[in-house]
């Protein structure tokens, strides 16, 4: 089975995605004991200028909210961070901020697991154009992850994963989409 709420279409340690360094995190389960299944988290991301602009970030913040009940779950998350001067000067990517948001739904009961994630980034998904060797951040990406699994009573599970990419409408968007896939 894939991890809950996936993350398979993104880099790790990229602003707020995956295992990230330099963050302070607060998580709360069951909303202070008042609402079963309602969870939230907030994060502060400290400025981090590494040797590579592709792995650096400015100060930022993020938050997530999830609710689970009777085998169903829903989650949403948002993060925004300042970009470094080197990132703003990169060949690709515009703007002073990097933003990421995602939402997901799941059903996990009766030997069936179904999940769907949708997320977007703005100036937060790094890539290198293999033709020109220029690098930077895609102005916008859209990521979809769909998972279906059936757990057989005698042990094994059948898992199917699908990660379609929406078709960009311009040549520049197409090049960015091609070189930003993971």
From TrEMBL:
SUPFAM superfamilies on file: Porins
Coiled coil: none
Keyword annotations of the record: Signal
A Gene Ontology cellular-component term: cell outer membrane
Gene3D superfamilies linked: Porin
InterPro entries: Gram-neg_bact_OMP, Porin_dom_sf, Porin_gammaproteobac, Porin_Gram-ve
GO MF term list: porin activity
Superkingdom field: Bacteria
Keyword Transmembrane: no
Pfam families: Porin_1
Keyword tRNA-binding: no
GO biological process, one term: monoatomic ion transmembrane transport
PANTHER family: OUTER MEMBRANE PORIN F-RELATED (PTHR34501:SF2), PROTEIN YDDL-RELATED (PTHR34501)
Name listed for the protein in its UniProt record: Outer membrane protein F
Organism of origin: Citrobacter koseri (Citrobacter diversus)
């Amino acid at each position: 089975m894939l991890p809950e709420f996936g993350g398979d279409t993104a880099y790790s340690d990229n602003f707020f995605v995956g295992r990230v360094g330099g963050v302070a995190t607060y998580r709360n389960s069951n909303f202070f004991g008042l609402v079963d299944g309602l969870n939230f988290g907030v994060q502060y991301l400290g400025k981090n200028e590494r040797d590579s602009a592709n792995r650096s970030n400015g100060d930022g913040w993020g938050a997530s909210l999830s609710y689970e009940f009777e085998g169903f779950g829903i989650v949403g998350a948002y993060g925004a961070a300042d970009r470094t001067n080197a990132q703003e000067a990169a060949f690709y990517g515009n703007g002073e901020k990097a933003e990421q948001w995602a939402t997901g739904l799941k059903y996990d009961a009766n030997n069936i697991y179904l999940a769907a994630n949708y997320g977007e980034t703005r100036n937060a998904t790094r890539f290198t154009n293999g033709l020109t060797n220029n690098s930077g951040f895609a102005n916008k990406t859209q990521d979809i992850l769909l998972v279906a699994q059936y757990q057989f009573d005698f042990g094994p599970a059948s898992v199917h994963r699908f990660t379609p990419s929406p078709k960009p409408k311009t040549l520049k968007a197409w090049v960015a989409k091609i070189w930003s896939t993971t």
